[in-house]
Structure formats: structure tokens, C-alpha cells
Design goal:
Shape of chain A: globular
Helix content of chain B: under 10%
Distance between the termini of chain A: 12 Å
Largest sheet of chain A: 18 strands, antiparallel, barrel
Distance between the termini of chain B: 64 Å
Shape of chain B: globular
Radius of gyration of chain B: 31 Å
Number of helices of chain A: 9
Number of strands of chain B: 51
Structural class of chain A: mainly beta
Strand content of chain A: over 45%
CATH topology of the domain at 2-118 in chain B: Immunoglobulin-like
Strand content of chain B: over 45%
Oligomer: heterodimer
């Protein structure tokens, strides 16, 4: 059973990186191929049940490190291959897993309008690791997902958090149907004590709204990378680097004959480019993202102590392109994430201390165009050229977590763990001219307990984490200037992040080993939050841009959000 | 003159045929110069015989089918080097080469197809004996995972990868930049030797008839979905899951295939015994499921292969109305009998094709209370019998008979809303002045379009082989065929009192399809394949001629009296050299051919066009006072002088085969000057009209209440004509490198430079769009030739196929580079007319000087700005695709692909110096295949 737990952990970490890892802004940009399917799933993943395990899985997801462990750590290899006392050179094996699941989530009251308030997602996928003796290991994973996300308002872009604040907004909104395809492949091998890996992953999504104005969004992520690991005594070092490429194409049009609407090209705090925000039958846009990321880890294994440090950095540049080929907006994003874990065993007891700090900084740029005559012989033909660039937008998101865990066995088959955590989240946006600013600073203390039962055939695990979110500081200094969608694009997200209240999540996993079939199991995740924004967080005035949706400021009220996911899995 | 040349050629060909026959009759074939190969084809694992495996001796072209136990006896083959290729569904093809100098027993062991085999081919094959034709076998078909046949064409040099949408008809082209309806119409699809046809489809409806099928802005796009008129077979209806292999003929076709101009796609259906296979393919626009199995009924009852697939497809995921859902099934039966002591191969194939999703809803349809229903069903049955006579005169005799019946019914309940007041609706079916009605501002229109085309085809072929004084070998193919095409449908049914498109009523009085006579044609062909060995080298000739005639046409149609003769000539010099112990083969080839595509039912029998002109329009919003008079002009677009569309092709090429290294270079020229078109012409009209009231109208008006005015004008009518002209020329290249063992990769580079010209082959008419003092311009000019559209493109495609047998993995990195893509309008069109017509219909010859000196005629000069002729040049564009397939265990295969995983499309300056860039949107999908 232990090997199956390890395999499943590896399986989900290759597959659903976001399930176990803190879903920081950096990972949204760097490792998009492992992203969660909905904002509520991302929220579920934000604070880990076991941060130490999460950090360790992050290290193992470096496939050269995995290959190093397979070839040099017999205990690790035994667990992975599910064989007892195998010969040293029995490295040939194929492990394969498949999973299917369904999730449903709902956000009551105010929510982030650019990502919807109700989510139904279905997925099915497979993952395999194929190791051949003296030939390294081949990795592969594939996932197909399909679902519907409801309640998009004032935004026609999918995964808007990557491209914020440069979204295309419409005043009608709608519900998105989507299909998502994810593939991952990699190969790792060792030579002369060094271990190398090369891998690539691709995620493609096509989403649409089937009511006017109808959008078709095609988003694709590609990441290509290489890694290297080496072991020196008790120390293990690893490095990996990735290139990331992302595109999103938006085609937005009214099906109804002769129907025209205004489509807003927003650039922060509700400012929109009036000249380029036409009243028209439709609009098209392309986003291009190019980025790179690097990650390094150091792990030291002493007899009863383990230290792990992981540091990764990502940079990406985004540009927008309109159908007339104007590149109106650019942004540059830096992400830095540090992880640390320490664990020590005292007999049968274990103490772990872990920390995670994830920081994302984004700068936005606006390109100013003028029209000119490219050919004086034809005075009715105009083209455009850039005459100025403005750097006025800034965004910062910082998530920091510390966790301590104490584990001890009860009897032969049971293990119990208790954890205490504290997280701090800071989010701020700034615009220099005219000056606009908002920020929130919150603290989230958490308590958790996990219970695990393992025997030869069966494994049952239940984990629970309860939390309380409290605002330490907040500010909203946004003064409307002319026509702005500040209520929709500045205040409403700010109000969402001013949430204070209680919440909790729990995960139940049951699995059983079946002869000649493998291991089959069930995974159930549930998350609930209840609370609301403080009474002094209210919009003052009347929104200057209004429609039938999200145009009337409402007083604060308590709300509930929930998310539940059920999955079936099988491993061989 | 041309006819004389063809007649002379025909006489010479017939003379040659007679001479060859006479020579053959006089030639003594020494029995010991030909030997028999017999043996068995079996599975290499369990030694079970592979029922009805297909064997082909590649040098002579002799092919046979094994019996139910895998045993075979080939007809006698000439002594010398032979290469016997065995193929069977689900197994990797095997070729055995040896020197035949006695009767031989050959045991062929075949391996089940798997990516764990060291040799697996996932690209198109170009064998020396195929004269540049591409063969895509089963392994390659499974690897590229096509959704329709047109996906297969992307393997050919020069073809550009693009995402085809299944919800609208896609034009098919070969060796050209862009696409046109005539080239698509001229593409023959031949399924197991039986040509498929769409020539019986007929839709005479405003906004459809005469329109370019690729134009998305038609009057009713939902009609456009399932209508593919005058543009060839709708390839969406052909499921590739029932296909074992595809051969694509780009250059000169064999004389055995007719009624084509562009090329031929020869499809070979799955047959034989095979395990149960299931396939699921998913991508954002298409969902496909297939299941199929081949069953040995018994040793005496033969083998039956059955398969079924379901495809649901949409062009745009936002579109609810325009979905294409297809269910196809195929049953393919094979057995072997003996008639006397002669083996007889029998094949019977049944195909069904049904479209479901009869009711479609959409936000707007529901809002407007509209409905849309489409039903499509097709049943085709074909039977083929081949008798191996093995006599001195005739080696084998083959007969084919097929019938293909489909029903396409489209029903629409549509809301018609006029934002500019009530529209007028004339009701007359004859020319002249008649009263009409005013339509309501808002009403519902119900119409349907029904087509029930039936195609019946029969063919008989014979093969004779003989030698000429033991110095040359002949293989003579000859035979005849007949085909009948008849449409039993009602055609367009619409209520003239509630027309669907009140702005265009030209086709509102349709003639039912069942009233149209059937198209009948017959053809004879003869083709001699001559091989002249010259020690190590050899010279091959393929000299063919085909004669076709149409029947059952009206006597005034020139096609009813015409026999179309098509020479198909190809020669090939094969030079074999020894280079360091390895064989190097150089092939030099050249060919010339003429191919004719016969007109379709829609082109031969178009409906009359009714053009209505307002005479008196008095609308008072009072039924007692309203009065509408129109003058109807009737035009018959039928053209009794329409001739077959002809394509003259010439090609030269060079191929090199050395170990695993292959190079191919081909240069071609094609001239098709008589393509079909609904050609627009101006016709003068004149009638009295009453537009200005003489006094206030207080009661139902009459003509006396208005000022009488004699009105003259021109109107445009389309007439079927051979006016479309297409010229194609280019160079294609292909290099296949040997496998790089270190990388486990082989590389194929192919590409082409194409230059295509689209223009008119007849004089054109033009009327300046000028209104002076309320009057339209009173003259129409006649000009020599229309605008020439030049398109050229140079592209290279590089495929890196990496095959790792130990992991059962194949992946392909595909780079497509378009080095240049240019378009321009040529300045060959004449600026000045050679004559002009006035409103009385009189035609006056005129010179450019007269045009320049006459202020009333100067506007007839079609002077264009320099910008009009500028070349639109696009910069280099690169596209990268990726595909990977992994075998999991022995029964499962998982694949995924991404098109446009990366693309490089730089910003460029258009011809008018504005900024442009082509966007490339990614497309992706996954497939799961299981064998049970």
C-alpha cells in the first residue's frame, strides 16, 4: 500500500501539481499546465494540508531528481515499484494510473466577476512512468476535462488572472462551456553520477459562450524544460529550467443580426481605451506570453533529520494584439517562490516545520499610437505607429505560510498528525497618473488534523483544516475620472479580497488493493467558507458605466461558498 | 484542328492495339519463361492463415487475393527479379524480393502492426513503379488520425496544413495555391474501383446557385452546410475509419479512370478478418467514435468486415445550429470460388451514411420561434467479381456493378422581417406584365430542399499479358463502363406567397429535380503498359486512350454528338547502378495527358431565372387600395454549347532510390481553360412603367393615374458557361533521409513551388457603376478576358519522425515553412473594350482612340490605380505541429496532437502599406485506440 500511496502522490504531482501545491501567482504563470480547473479548486489548493509533503513533492516533480532516487535509493525504488527486496538492477517497470472525477462549486454573494461564480468540471486522465533497465525513464500524462463556468461578468477572457488588468469586457456577460486537453511527456536518465531530464507539457483549452455576445476563446500553454540532479553523500542538488509559451485568441461577436455593443479594452482600475473600445458587431484579440523559469533545490538527509530548500524564479512578458494589429498593452511579471522544510524523527514521533513564500510582481505598460498616411499617394489609407509608452500600473501579490506538524503512530496501522499554520496574504494595485491605489492585507491562522489507516490491502486517510481569515489592513483610494468601469474592475475584486470569515476543507481518501487489477480508490474533497466583507467596505457613488449586470453597489452581507470534488482512481 | 489531331491519335492507338494483339497472336510464349509462385500468408505468432490477404507483384503489377486459409497461387510471372508485397488489415506490410527462375513456394509470415516493430512507416510512400503517386497505408493512416479524406492530402508535397471544418463543404485542390470549384469538381474519388459522384445534386435557390461554395456569406448558411453543388464529392461523408489505404494520383491518371481533371483519390476499404477495434477521437470541434471487426464466417462462407462510426462536428463551438453529425457503417464481404477450375474472387460492399441531429435549437432560433430540420441518408451497394482466366488471350476479367442512392432533405421554418416596409412579391411564371402582392412586414416562411440522387455504375475490365519477341513485356488493360445519374427529389419547395428571401426571387419558380432527365455516359479505354528491359535498366511506357460520350441529352446540346478522346501517355526510364555494393535506382519520367470532367445535372439543366421589375408600386397600407404591377423577364441560363471541362497536363520528374535515401523532383504544367461557371452577362430590358402619380390617389389606382415612362436598363443574368480558366504550374520536391540511429529519427523534407492563375477564358462584360442625373450608365463594354489572379507559394515541410520501439512510442515534430506567399492581379486584362452595347441591345465595335475621344464612352475605360496591381507579399511564416503516439500494453494506443503548437508569423506591410499579421490559433486533440 505504501508504494501505491507514493505512486499516487507522484501521479497527482505530475498531473495535478495544483492539487498539492500552493497555487501562487508564480505557478499560475510558470506551471500552467498543472493548473486547477476552477478558481475554487485553486482556492482549495492554496493552503496545503501538509506543507512539508507538498514541498517534497515539488522536489520529486523534477524528473531528474526522481530518476536519481530510483537509481540510488533502494527504499524509494521499492516503494515505487511495489516490490519487496528487489535485486539492485531490477529497474524495469511500468506504473500506470488513471483517474476520473467531477467537481462542483458555488460562490454566493460577491465574487471575482472575471472568473465566474459557479463551476462544474469533469475530468478523466492517465499517467504513466515507464522505466527500462539502464535506459532511463519515460514519463507521460494526459488529461481531458470538460465543464461549464457560470456567471462571467464584464470580462470575455478566460484565465483573466494571467492577463490582468488587460482584459476585454462586455456589458452582458454569460456562461462558459469549455474543453481542456493536457499532455505531458518527459525522459530522464543518468550518466556518471549526474542525472538529466527533459520534458515538455502542453495544455490547450477551447471555451465559448453560446449567448450573445458570443465568445470563442482558445488558450494554449506550452512548457519545455530540462533538469539536472546530483547526489553527494547525504546532500542532493537539483536544477531545472523551463521556457513557457502561452497564447489566447478571443473571437467575440453578436449572432443577432445588426446587434452592436461596446466592448471595453480595460487597462486597470476600470480605465478603458475609449478610442479602441468600439461599438461594433464584435471584436478579436490575441494575447502572447513568453516566459522562462528556473528552480533549484537542496536536500540533506541525515539519519533522523531532513532539510529541504527550494527556490524558483519565473519571468514572463505578455503582449496584447488587436485585430488591426495594434499592440496596445504589455506587462512584465516576476515571480519568486521559496520553500523550506525541516523534519526530525524522535523514535516513532515526527516533527515537521515548513514555510512557503510566494511573491508576484507585475508592471503594466500602455503603448500610445497615432495614425498616419503610409503612402501619401493614397490619402484615404491609414496605418498606425507607436509614439509613446506609459508605465503606470503595478500589481503585487504575496502569500506566506508557516506550518508545524506533529505526527505519531497509534498502534500498528494508524498514524495521526496535528498541524498549526499561519498564512499572510498581501495584495495591492497601483496606478500612477492619475493616482489610484488599493490594497488588502490579511492573516489566516489554521489548525489541522489528519488521520491515516494503512494495512496490506487498504488505505484510509482523512485530513481536515480549519481556518479563520481576518483583515489586518485595507485601503481603497480609487477616484473615478470620466467614464470608468471602476466599480466592476476595481471595487468588486477589492471587496472579494476583503473577505473575513471562517472556512475549512477536508479530504477523504479510500483505496484498496485488488489482485491482478491493481489499486482502486476514491478521493473526496470538500471546502466551505462563510463570512463577508467588513461594513466599511462599500462603494461610494454611482458607477459611471452601467448595464443590466454588476452595476448596482450593494451593502455588505454574509455569504457562503462551497466546493466539492469526487474522484475515482486506479493504479497498476 | 484539335479534334483532327485527337482522331489521328485515336487511330494510331487503335492501330497499335491491333498490332500488339496481332503480334501477340503470333508470338509464341515459351512456357518456361514464366513461373508460378504459390504459398501461404500467415500470422508469425500462431501461424494461422490470413484470409483474403492481398498480394501484389510490384514489377509486373500482378495482384491476387489469398483464399480463406491464406493460400495463394499467383498467375505465371516472367522470370527475373520479383518483389512480392503482402498486405493485410492490422498487419505490417511485408515485401519479399527474390530472383524467380522456377516455380516457387513462398511462405510469408506477417506481424501484427505495432509501434514496437523496428520498421514502421508513418509517411506517404512513393514507390518507383507508382510514377509519383503517393500511397498512404494503414499504419500511416492510423498515425495521422484523419477525420476526413482531405486530411490525408496534407501528407503531399506542396499542401499546406490547415484545420478543416466539417460543417461546411470544403473545396479540394491539388497542386495549386488556393482552391476553386472546378478543381474540386475535377477530383475523382474512387472507392475500391467504383467512382463516387456528387453530380446529381441540384439546388436552384437564390444565394446558392452560382455562388462560390467557399463563400460563407450566402443567403442561408444552414443550407450551405449540406449542399455541395458543382464542386465535387462531399468528403465529409467519407469516413476514413473504413479505409485501409489511400493512393493519390496527382499527375496523369490511368486511362481506366475518367470523368476527372484534377487527380484521383483511390480508396481501398478495410476487408478481411481482424480483431475488434475501437477508436475514440476528441478535439474541440470533432468527436468521433468507431468500432469495427472482421469475422471469418466459415471456410466456405468467406470473411465479413463490419465497421461503424459516429462523428459529431461543428465549425464554430459557439454555433448551435450548424452542427454536422454523421453515422456511417460499412459491411465488406469477400469470398473465393471456383468457376470450372478458374478462381473467382467476389467482393460485395454495403455502405450506409446517415445524419442525425434532426432538430437544432439556438438562442436566436428559440427567440424567433424558428425551426430547422435536416435529414441525410445514403445507401450504396457495390459488387465486384474477378475471374482469373490465365489464358493466352485474357489473363483476368473483372466486373463491377454499383448503385448509390441518397436522400437529402432540408426543412426550414424561418422568420422574415423587413425593416424597410413591406416587400413586393410578383407571382407570374411567364414573361410580361402581371399583378403581384405585397408581403407582410413580418411573416414565417416554410421551405424545403429535397435531393434524391441515384448513381448506377457498371464496368467491365480485362487484362492481357504478352511479350514481344521476348524483348518487351506488355500488359494491356481494356474495358468499358457506363454510368447513370438521376435525381428523384422534389428540389426547392417554397410557397411563392411567403418566399424565404424576398429580396431575391429569381429562383422562386423552381423545376422539380425528378423532372430533369438522367445523365448517362459511356466510356471505353485501352491502356498498354510496356516494359523494355535493357540489361540492368528498363524502359516503361504507359500508353492509354479513353473515349467518353454522353447520352440522353437534348439534341441541341453539342455534348450529345461529341466523343471525347483523352490520351494518357507516360514514360519512365529506370537506371540501376551498383554503388559500393548497394543498388541505386534513378528514374526519369515524363508524361502528357488530357482529362475531361463532364458537366453535372445542375449545370446541364439549370432553372429559368425570373427577374421582376417594378412597373407600378402603390402601397397605401390598405388592401383595397394597394396595387402592384411588375414586368417579368425570363432568362434561360442553360447553355446547349456547354462542353466538358478539359485539363491538359504535362509532367517531368526524377526520382532517386538508394538504400533508405529517396529524392524526388517533379515539374508540371496544367491548363484547364474550360472550367464551369455561372457566367454573369448583361441583358437589355425595356418596358413601360408608372412611377409618378399625376394627381393625388384616393382609390385603387390604375395606370391612367400615373405618368407613363418608357424605361430601359440592363440587368444581369447568369448563364452556364465554360468560362473559368485555371493554369497551374510548379515544382515539387521530396527528400527522405535514412534513419539516424542515435536519435531514432528519420527525416522527410518535402515542399513545392506553385504558381496558379485564376481567370476567365472568355470575354467579359462590364458596366461602370455611375449614375448621372438620376440615370444609370447606358452602355456595357465587352473586354478581352477578365482579371488574372496570380497566386504563388513556396513552402517546405520537414517531418522528424522519432520511433522508439522499446517504449512503443512514435512522435513527430512537424515544421511547415512558407517561404513566400504572394498574390497579385495581372495587368493582362484589357483596359478598353473592343465593343459596347447600348440600351437597345445594339453592339458597336469601338477602338481605344474612340473611347478616349468620346466623353460618353470614356467611362468604359477600366483604368486602375497602381495599387490595384501591387503584389501582396507575405513574409516567411513558420508553423510547428506535434504528434505523439504511445502504445500501452499490447491492445491500447494513446495519441495526441497539437497543430500550431508554435507559430512565427511576423508583422508585415500589406500592398497598401498598412500593417498586417496572420494569426494562427492552436488546435489540439487526443485519440484512444483499442484492439480486443
Amino acid at each position: 500500500m505504501k508504494c501505491n500511496i507514493l505512486l499516487f502522490s507522484l501521479f497527482v504531482c505530475v498531473f495535478f501539481d495544483g492539487v498539492l501545491f500552493a497555487q501562487s501567482e508564480r505557478e499560475l504563470l510558470f506551471d500552467k499546465s498543472h493548473d486547477a480547473l476552477s478558481p475554487l479548486e485553486k482556492r482549495f489548493n492554496t493552503y496545503a494540508f501538509d506543507l512539508s509533503q507538498q514541498n517534497n513533492n515539488r522536489m520529486i516533480s523534477n524528473i531528474s531528481a526522481f530518476q536519481l532516487l530510483i537509481e540510488t535509493d533502494s527504499a524509494f525504488r521499492d516503494r515505487f515499484s511495489c516490490k519487496k527486496n528487489p535485486p539492485v538492477d531490477s529497474l524495469g517497470m511500468l506504473r500506470i494510473g488513471a483517474e476520473t472525477g467531477y467537481s462542483h462549486g458555488y460562490i454566493g454573494g460577491e465574487y471575482l466577476p472575471y472568473s465566474g461564480n459557479e463551476f462544474r468540471d469533469f475530468h478523466v486522465g492517465t499517467s504513466l512512468v515507464h522505466t527500462l533497465k539502464n535506459k532511463g525513464s519515460f514519463w507521460g500524462a494526459a488529461r481531458y476535462s470538460k465543464g461549464k463556468h457560470y456567471g462571467y461578468q464584464w470580462n470575455a477572457i478566460r484565465h483573466a488572472e494571467i492577463y490582468l488588468p488587460y482584459v476585454v469586457a462586455d456589458s452582458t456577460g454569460g456562461d462558459y462551456d469549455y474543453e481542456d486537453y493536457f499532455f505531458h511527456g518527459g525522459y530522464a536518465w543518468g550518466k556518471n553520477g549526474f542525472y538529466y531530464g527533459c520534458e515538455g507539457s502542453y495544455r490547450g483549452e477551447i471555451a465559448c459562450r453560446k449567448t450573445d455576445p458570443r465568445c470563442a476563446n482558445t488558450t494554449a500553454w506550452l512548457s519545455l524544460g530540462g533538469s539536472m540532479s546530483v547526489k553527494a553523500g547525504d546532500d542532493m542538488y537539483g536544477l531545472r529550467a523551463f521556457y513557457l509559451y502561452n497564447r489566447q485568441h478571443l473571437a467575440l461577436r453578436n449572432w443577432r443580426p445588426n446587434q452592436q455593443d461596446r466592448f471595453y479594452l480595460v487597462y486597470g482600475f476600470g480605465f478603458f481605451d475609449i478610442q479602441s473600445s468600439p461599438i461594433s458587431f464584435g471584436i478579436n484579440r490575441m494575447y502572447y506570453l513568453n516566459g522562462a523559469a528556473a528552480e533549484a533545490f537542496y536536500k540533506r538527509n541525515e539519519s533522523e533529520k531532513t532539510f529541504l530548500y527550494v527556490l524558483d524564479y519565473a519571468f514572463c512578458k505578455i503582449k496584447t494584439e488587436e485585430s488591426n494589429r495594434k499592440n496596445l498593452f504589455d506587462s512584465k511579471t516576476h515571480s519568486l517562490t521559496g520553500r523550506m522544510s525541516y523534519s526530525q524523527t524522535f523514535g516513532t514521533f515526527q516533527i515537521e516545520a515548513s514555510a512557503l513564500s510566494s511573491n508576484t510582481f507585475r508592471m503594466g505598460m500602455e503603448n500610445i499610437y497615432e495614425s498616419y498616411l503610409p503612402d501619401p499617394a493614397y490619402p484615404n489609407i491609414y496605418d498606425y505607429r507607436i509614439v509613446s509608452i506609459r508605465n503606470r500600473y503595478r500589481y503585487l501579490l504575496s502569500d506566506n505560510i508557516v506550518q508545524c506538524t506533529f505526527r505519531h503512530p497509534v498502534g500498528k496501522h494508524v498514524k495521526i498528525g496535528y498541524s498549526g499554520s499561519c498564512a499572510e496574504q498581501h495584495r495591492s494595485e497601483n496606478y500612477t497618473d492619475p493616482s489610484q491605489h488599493l490594497h488588502t492585507n490579511a492573516i489566516i491562522p489554521m489548525l489541522g488534523v489528519d488521520f491515516q489507516y494503512i494495512n496490506e490491502e487498504m488505505n484510509a486517510e482523512i485530513k481536515t483544516l480549519v481556518m479563520y481569515r481576518k483583515l489586518l489592513d485595507k485601503a481603497y483610494a480609487v477616484a473615478p475620472v470620466g467614464l470608468m468601469t471602476d466599480f466592476q474592475h476595481a471595487f468588486t475584486p477589492y471587496a472579494y479580497y476583503c473577505f473575513e470569515g471562517v472556512g475549512g476543507k477536508t479530504e477523504l481518501q479510500l483505496s484498496r488493493s485488488i489482485r491482478n487489477i491493481g489499486t482502486a480508490g476514491l478521493l473526496l474533497d470538500v471546502m466551505v467558507h462563510y463570512g463577508g466583507r467588513p461594513n466599511d467596505v462599500q462603494y461610494v457613488g454611482i458607477p459611471s458605466v452601467q448595464s443590466d449586470i454588476l452595476s448596482t453597489p450593494l451593502p455588505p452581507e454574509k455569504k457562503m461558498e462551497f466546493w466539492v470534488k469526487a474522484s475515482l482512481f486506479w493504479m497498476l | 484542328m484539335q479534334h483532327k489531331c485527337k482522331a489521328v491519335l485515336l487511330v494510331w492507338m487503335l492501330a497499335f492495339l491491333c498490332m500488339a494483339t496481332a503480334v501477340h497472336a503470333g508470338v509464341k510464349v515459351k512456357p518456361d519463361e514464366r513461373y508460378v509462385i504459390r504459398g501461404r500468408v500467415s500470422d508469425d505468432h500462431n501461424d494461422s492463415g490470413l484470409a483474403f490477404a492481398v498480394l501484389l507483384e510490384e514489377n509486373s503489377g500482378i495482384g491476387i487475393v489469398c483464399d480463406v486459409n491464406g493460400n495463394f497461387t499467383m498467375p505465371p510471372i516472367h522470370a527475373g527479379k520479383v518483389s512480392v508485397k503482402a498486405s493485410y488489415l492490422g498487419y505490417a506490410g511485408k515485401t519479399v524480393a527474390f530472383f524467380l527462375n522456377s516455380d516457387t513456394t513462398l511462405m510469408i509470415k506477417m506481424s501484427a502492426q505495432s509501434f514496437r516493430l523496428n520498421e514502421i512507416n508513418v509517411v506517404a510512400k512513393y514507390a518507383p513503379q507508382n510514377k509519383g503517386n503517393a500511397v498512404i497505408d494503414q499504419a500511416a493512416l492510423e498515425y495521422i488520425q484523419p477525420t476526413s479524406i482531405s486530411d490525408v492530402l496534407q501528407l503531399l508535397p506542396g499542401n499546406i496544413l490547415e484545420n478543416k471544418v466539417m460543417t461546411r463543404f470544403n473545396l479540394t485542390g491539388l497542386r495549386q495555391v488556393g482552391a476553386d470549384a472546378n478543381s474540386s469538381l475535377g477530383m475523382a474519388i474512387v472507392s475500391d474501383g467504383v467512382p463516387m459522384s456528387n453530380d446529381g445534386m441540384r439546388v436552384q435557390l437564390g444565394g446558392i446557385t452560382g455562388e462560390d461554395p467557399s463563400n460563407p456569406y450566402v443567403a442561408d448558411r444552414v443550407v450551405n452546410r449540406n449542399v455541395s453543388v458543382n464542386a465535387g464529392v462531399d468528403m465529409r461523408n467519407l469516413s476514413t475509419d473504413h479505409i485501409e489505404s489511400v493512393e493519390i494520383v496527382r499527375g496523369i491518371s490511368s486511362a481506366r479512370v475518367g470523368d476527372l481533371t484534377t487527380g484521383a483519390i483511390q480508396v481501398h476499404s478495410k476487408q478481411g478478418e481482424s480483431p475488434l477495434m475501437a477508436r475514440v477521437k476528441l478535439d474541440p470541434l470533432n468527436k468521433l467514435f468507431y468500432v469495427g471487426k472482421g469475422v471469418k464466417l466459415s471456410k466456405k462462407r468467406g470473411v465479413l468486415h463490419v465497421g461503424m462510426d459516429v462523428l459529431s462536428s461543428t465549425a464554430d463551438i459557439r454555433e448551435q445550429l450548424e452542427k454536422y453529425t454523421r453515422v456511417t457503417a460499412q459491411e465488406n464481404y469477400n469470398n473465393k470460388y471456383e468457376i470450372g477450375d478458374k478462381p473467382f474472387d467476389l467482393n460485395i460492399k454495403l455502405s450506409q451514411n446517415v445524419s442525425v441531429n434532426n432538430h437544432k435549437t439556438d438562442q436566436l432560433v428559440v427567440e424567433k420561434d424558428e425551426s430547422y430540420q435536416s435529414r441525410y441518408a445514403r445507401l450504396a451497394v457495390s459488387t465486384k467479381g474477378r475471374l482469373l482466366l490465365n489464358t493466352m488471350l485474357v489473363e483476368d476479367l473483372e466486373m463491377k456493378l454499383s448503385a448509390d442512392l441518397s436522400r437529402d432533405l432540408l426543412s426550414r421554418h424561418k422568420m422574415v422581417l423587413s425593416s424597410s416596409g413591406p416587400k413586393s412579391m410578383p407571382l407570374s411564371a411567364v414573361a410580361g406584365e402581371h399583378e403581384g402582392i405585397f408581403l407582410p412586414v413580418k411573416y414565417y416562411s416554410d421551405y424545403c430542399i429535397e435531393n434524391i440522387p441515384l448513381y448506377v455504375f457498371a464496368q467491365i475490365n480485362a487484362t492481357s499479358r504478352f511479350s514481344i519477341k521476348e524483348k518487351a513485356r506488355n500488359c494491356l488493360y481494356y474495358g468499358g463502363e457506363a454510368k447513370v445519374t438521376k435525381n428523384f427529389g422534389k428540389g426547392v419547395c417554397a410557397d411563392p406567397m411567403r418566399p424565404p428571401y424576398p429580396l431575391d426571387n429569381t429562383y422562386i419558380r423552381p423545376r422539380p429535380n425528378y423532372a430533369i432527365p438522367a445523365i448517362v455516359y459511356g466510356a471505353f479505354y485501352a491502356e498498354d503498359r510496356l516494359t523494355v528491359p535493357m540489361s540492368r535498366h528498363s524502359l516503361d511506357f504507359s500508353l492509354g486512350v479513353r473515349a467518353t460520350k454522353m447520352f440522353n441529352l437534348p439534341k441541341d446540346y453539342i455534348l450529345s454528338h461529341k466523343i471525347m478522346v483523352e490520351p494518357r501517355l507516360q514514360g519512365q526510364l529506370n537506371l540501376v547502378n551498383n554503388v559500393k555494393g548497394d543498388k541505386m535506382l534513378n528514374v526519369f519520367r515524363a508524361g502528357y495527358g488530357e482529362e475531361n470532367k463532364l458537366p453535372t445535372l445542375d449545370l446541364l439543366y439549370p432553372d429559368k431565372v425570373y427577374r421582376d421589375f417594378m412597373v407600378l408600386n402603390a402601397y397605401f397600407q390598405n388592401e383595397d387600395l394597394d396595387y402592384l404591377l411588375v414586368n417579368t423577364f425570363v432568362h434561360d441560363p442553360a447553355n446547349p454549347n456547354v462542353r466538358a471541362s478539359l485539363n491538359k497536363k504535362a509532367e517531368v520528374g526524377w526520382d532517386l532510390f538508394f538504400n533508405q535515401f529517396e529524392v524526388s523532383l517533379s515539374a508540371f504544367y496544367e491548363n484547364a481553360p474550360y472550367g464551369y461557371e455561372y457566367f454573369a452577362g448583361f441583358y437589355p430590358v425595356a418596358f413601360f412603367r408608372y412611377m409618378e402619380p399625376l394627381h393625388p390617389i384616393t382609390e385603387k389606382p390604375t395606370k391612367a393615374d400615373y405618368l407613363e415612362e418608357y424605361y430601359k436598363d440592363f440587368t444581369r443574368f447568369n448563364t452556364v458557361a465554360n468560362s473559368a480558366k485555371t493554369i497551374k504550374k510548379g515544382i515539387e520536391y521530396r527528400v527522405l533521409f535514412p534513419k539516424i540511429d542515435v536519435l531514432a529519427t528519420n527525416i522527410e523534407v518535402n515542399g513545392a513551388y506553385y504558381q496558379t492563375v485564376y481567370t476567365k477564358g472568355v470575354p467579359v462584360m462590364y458596366r461602370p457603376d455611375i449614375i448621372e442625373f438620376g440615370q444609370k450608365y447606358p452602355y456595357v463594354g465587352f473586354y478581352e478576358g477578365g482579371t488574372h489572379y496570380y497566386k504563388e507559394r513556396f513552402n517546405t515541410t520537414v517531418r522528424f519522425n522519432t520511433h522508439i520501439p522499446s517504449y512503443g512510442l512514435i512522435f513527430t515534430n512537424f515544421f511547415q515553412v512558407v517561404w513566400l506567399s504572394n498574390e497579385r492581379k495581372g495587368n493582362e486584362e484589357s483596359v478598353y473594350p473592343y465593343s459596347y452595347m447600348d440600351l437597345d441591345g445594339k453592339v458597336h465595335p469601338v477602338t481605344p482612340e474612340e473611347i478616349q475621344s468620346d466623353v460618353h464612352l470614356i467611362d468604359l475605360a477600366r483604368e486602375r490605380t497602381e495599387l490595384y496591381y501591387r503584389t501582396e507579399r507575405k513574409p516567411i511564416a513558420i508553423r510547428v505541429d506535434f504528434k505523439a503516439t504511445k502504445e500501452i500494453g499490447e491492445r491500447t494506443r494513446l495519441s495526441f496532437y497539437v497543430n500550431n503548437i508554435i507559430d512565427i508569423n511576423p508583422i508585415y506591410k500589406r500592398a497598401d502599406h498598412t500593417t498586417g499579421r496572420d494569426w494562427a490559433v492552436a488546435f489540439f486533440g487526443v485519440e484512444l485506440m483499442m484492439r480486443l
